[in-house]
Structure formats: C-alpha cells, structure tokens
Design goal:
four-stranded mixed sheet, about 30% helix
C-alpha cells in the first residue's frame, strides 16, 4: 500500500498512461491492482508469484497518513484468508485478540490533534476491495468488490 499512486510507481512495470487512467479514476479507494513487479520489489514480498505484485492506495485517512510518513508498506487484509470480511474495529479485535489498536474515537482525536481540524472518517462498505490484474493490455477482474471497471 502507498499514500498515493506516485509512491508505488517504482515498484510496478505498467504503461504510464494505463496506470494513470485507472489510478486517477479509482484511487484512493477499494481497488487492488495486480501488476508486473519491478526488480525493486524484494522476492520475499511475492515468492509464489515473483512476476507480479498487488498494490493499492487506501481511502482511510489514518492509513494514508501513516503511509505518507513511512513510505509504501507491505500489508494484508484484516481477516483470515477465506474468511468473511471484517467490517468493524470490534470484529478485528475479536478475530485478532493479541493485536493492539485504537478505537474509532481515539483515531478521530489523534487525527484532529495532528491536523488541527476535524477529519471525516469513512464508513466501511462491508464489501471487499475489487482486485484487478493487468492481462494482455486489459484489466481482468479477479474479485469483484465495490469498484466496477
């Protein structure tokens, strides 16, 4: 994940025009793009599919603020593989009891202090992100979520 499309550019090998068209239309948002990986991506990040990598720019202001400070990060979904999508922080804490986190009111307070103004928190859709792969000069939807291509 990255704070913006430009932060991810050096990790992918995609035609610039195709990249900009889809990222300008759908990022930040619930779209994961599976694209050819550049040599800059460590093999440990994608050992089963070394030629591709999934990238995304989330819409959540906390995630984007963290990513802006750290640079792109390798992340995973907040649910166990094959399990239902978790749609609230309470569900995340229930499924992962040993993980520490902030509840929504603490996040709002921290963001307000950091930015000096109130931040509107997104409401989870309850749907997974759309996953699309660049295939033969076209985007192939691997998993349909909230974004329609």
């Amino acid at each position: 994940m990255g704070a913006n499309a430009a932060a991810l550019w050096s990790y992918v090998m995609v035609d610039a025009a195709q990249w900009q068209t889809i990222t300008d239309s759908h990022w930040p948002g619930q779209l994961t793009l599976v694209v050819p990986a550049s040599p800059q991506v460590p093999l440990a990040m994608h050992p089963h599919t070394p030629d591709t990598i999934g990238v995304r720019v989330p819409a959540h202001p906390v995630a984007r603020q963290v990513l802006a400070l750290t640079g792109p990060l390798a992340t995973t979904s907040a649910n166990l593989s094959g399990q239902a999508t978790l749609t609230s922080i309470e569900q995340v804490f229930e499924q992962f009891p040993n993980v520490y986190g902030l509840d929504n009111s603490a996040i709002r307070a921290l963001l307000g202090q950091a930015t000096g103004h109130k931040i509107r928190m997104p409401v989870p859709s309850g749907l997974p992100s759309t996953v699309a792969r660049w295939q033969s000069n076209n985007w192939e939807v691997l998993r349909q979520g909230t974004v329609y291509l």
